Amino acid sequence: MLIGEVARRSGVSARMLRHYESLGLVRPSGRTGSGYREYSRADIRRIFHIESLRSLGLSLREIGRALDEPGFAPAALVDDLIHRTRERIAAETELLTRLRRIDAAGPAGWEDVLQAVALLQALGSKSADARQRAALSSVQDASVPVEALVDAVLSETDTNVAGALRWALARSGDDAAALLARGLDSPVAEVRARAVRALAELSGAEATARLRHALDGPDAVVRGYAALALGSR
């Protein structure tokens, strides 16, 4: 079968087939009298094997080893592929979250987008000073969605930054209480404690209702914070 027909039947372009040949992945078994490449059934089967392994995320070098080295076991490679795929999914999920937050801020132009990106990056910075500055600036900047502040509050471990984030969240609007309440159901005790402390600093009927509901929860620390907050209202 000539290269053009192989390309049509396999969906692999003639250019890619030549690339595979240059790498030694698949070489046509014969040539016509005119010197054209001629692929056998075995060659075509190998092309489909290559494409199947590519669909799993293997590099062409890894595919060559998998097909040609008898002792090349799949287990370690599959484990590595799983790890790489998880990392890629995590990165894509982080990007999707950031895009949704920028969209929620309703940017009017690219300047607003860039400002929102800068603040969101600062909130996730490894520097506590940068996170604190971002928390304080977010009060004057409507481009930071409440959800981003809530996530920052629930994950913050630095005492000073956490205080700045709670202060900013208390001035962010009416949606914060409902979002923070989700943190009360976290399986992580520290997250539940951060959620109730932030709720305690919010005013309004919604925050009060969430604190009252927290009094019936199983976490003694959460119940204690909720009781103290309600006692001062």
From TrEMBL:
Keyword Transferase among UniProt keywords: no
SUPFAM superfamilies referenced in this protein's UniProt entry, alphabetically: ARM repeat, Putative DNA-binding domain
Chain coiled-coil ranges: none
GO molecular function, one term: DNA binding
Domain HTH merR-type: from-to ranges: 1-69
Keyword field: DNA-binding
Lineage: superkingdom: Bacteria
Any Pfam family the entry gives: HEAT_2
Protein name: MerR family transcriptional regulator
Organism: Streptomyces rubrogriseus
